[in-house]
Amino acid sequence: MLIDSYDRVVDYLRVSVTERCNFRCQYCMPEKPFSWVPKENLLSFEELFEFMKVAIDEGVKKIRITGGEPLLREDLDKFIKMIYDYEPAIDLAMTTNAFLLKGTAQRLKDAGLKRINVSIDTLKPEVAQAIAGKDVLKNVLEGVDEALKVGLKVKVNMVPMKNMNADEIVDVLEYCKERDMSVRFIEYMENKFAKADISGLKSSELLEILRQKYEFEDEGFDGSSPSHYYRMKDGYRFGIIEPYGDDFCKQCNRIRLTAEGNLIPCLYFDEAMSIAESIKKGDIKGAAAVLKEVVRTKPEKNRWGGEDDEVSNRAFYETGG
Fold this sequence. Notes:
Structural class: alpha/beta
C-alpha cells in the first residue's frame, strides 16, 4: 500500500500515453504547433506496462489512460489488454476527446476498458469549432453514442467560459441526463499555455445558473473524487470541480505518469521524478523506489488561488489535466 506523508492512501495512477492532440482547445494549448516529442523519447507500451505492474503490486487499484489524446497512439487497445490481463480487477478508465472513439470503442471495451471521460463543452457545432480549432462536434457525439452502445460507462466534463459556452450549461446537463451520463462542470484552470482572454465561471456562478431551473441538495465530496456533488429531486447528480479551493486535496489519491516517464505527484506542481532510466534498464526495484519517493513527497495541496495568485506552468496536455 502506498501512503503519503499526510496519511492519504495513493491508489490511483493516471498514465499519459502521448502529449499529441488533434484539438487546439483555447483553455489548453491553442497556439501549440504540431511538433512533438520524438517517438524514441517516449516509453514503449511494454515499458509503460512494466511500471504498471510495479504500481499495481504496490497497491494501485485504478488506472486512467490519458494524453494529449490517447486514441492518437496506435494499438492503445493492446496496452489496455496488457494491464487487464495482469489484473482483471483493476479499474481501467480513459479520458478522451472522443473524436476517434466511434471506430475504436468496441476494441477498447473488449480489451478491458470500463469507463471513459469525455469533454463536451458545447452542443453547438460553431462553438465547438471556435473552442477546439476545428469542426469536431459530429465526431465527438457519434463517439459518445458508440461508447454507450458497446457498454462503456461515460462521464462528461464541461469547462464553462464566459462569452463562449456559459449559456449552454443547462443544455449540456440535460444532454447527459437524458443518456444517464454523469456531468462535471470544471472551473477553468489558468495556465500559461491557454489563450489569454479566457474567463471561466466560478462554482457560485454555475450554481446560480442551475438554480434558475432546478432544485438540488449539496452532497459534498464522494470519497476521493475531486468533484463536489449535488443531487436533484429526481436523483440525478452533477458535480463541480473547484481547483481554486483545496477541499478535494484532503482526500487526493492520485499521481500521474507522462509518456516520457516522469512521475508527477500533483497536477499543479512542476516537480517530478523519472522512472524511465530504471524501467529501460529493467531495474524494477529502482522504479519502485522512485514511485515510493514521489508518493512520500506528494504535496498537501495545490497552490491555485494562493496569496501570490500563481498561474500553473504545467502543460496539461502532457499530463491529462
